[in-house]
Amino acid sequence: MIDLGISKLALIGAVALIVIGPEKLPRVARTVGTLLGKAQRYVNDVKAEVNRSMDLDELRKMKDTVQDAAREVEHSIQTGASDFEKQFADIGQEASGPLAEPPPSYPEYKHPRKKWRLKQGAMPQWYKARTGVRTRALSGAARVARYRPHKIN
């Protein structure tokens, strides 16, 4: 970059003061400052984008290596499973002789019939009873009759 020291900045300021004039110098300085700030932000954005693209390339490479390793593991598991199935089939053919027992039969699964049409509340009844939540609505007359103090003779 350009090496600007204190002496060079003072020289540039003095020339700007003479050329531009003291009335317009603050406005020009503000404009130059905002333009330099925008340029710095643009350069920083470009740097960040380049870094993101480099990180993305690295992540893609890592993803490819992980996928290759996963394919290798899957292939080895499939070959091992097929070998095991062959061995199991050979053992099964040897064992299926005239004295072989039939496999045990299990009862068929029966789904528990729930009352799916019945709407269930989210709060259990025991909790409602413990905390005193009303579960049944009372009419106004029934409420008055229930909570009216009884006369003792």
Automatic annotation (TrEMBL):
InterPro entries according to UniProt: TatA/B/E (IPR003369), TatB (IPR018448)
Key words, A-Z: Cell inner membrane, Cell membrane, Membrane, Protein transport, Translocation, Transmembrane, Transmembrane helix, Transport
Membrane-related topology note: Single-pass membrane protein
Chain segments carrying region Disordered: 92-111
Keyword field contains Transmembrane helix: yes
Compartment annotation: Cell membrane; Membrane
NCBIfam families to which the protein is assigned, alphabetical: tatB
Family: Belongs to the TatB family.
Primary role: Part of the twin-arginine translocation (Tat) system that transports large folded proteins containing a characteristic twin-arginine motif in their signal peptide across membranes. Together with TatC, TatB is part of a receptor directly interacting with Tat signal peptides. TatB may form an oligomeric binding site that transiently accommodates folded Tat precursor proteins before their translocation.
Quaternary assembly: The Tat system comprises two distinct complexes: a TatABC complex, containing multiple copies of TatA, TatB and TatC subunits, and a separate TatA complex, containing only TatA subunits. Substrates initially bind to the TatABC complex, which probably triggers association of the separate TatA complex to form the active translocon.
Protein name in the entry: Sec-independent protein translocase protein TatB
Organism: Variovorax defluvii
Source lineage: Bacteria, Pseudomonadati, Pseudomonadota, Betaproteobacteria, Burkholderiales
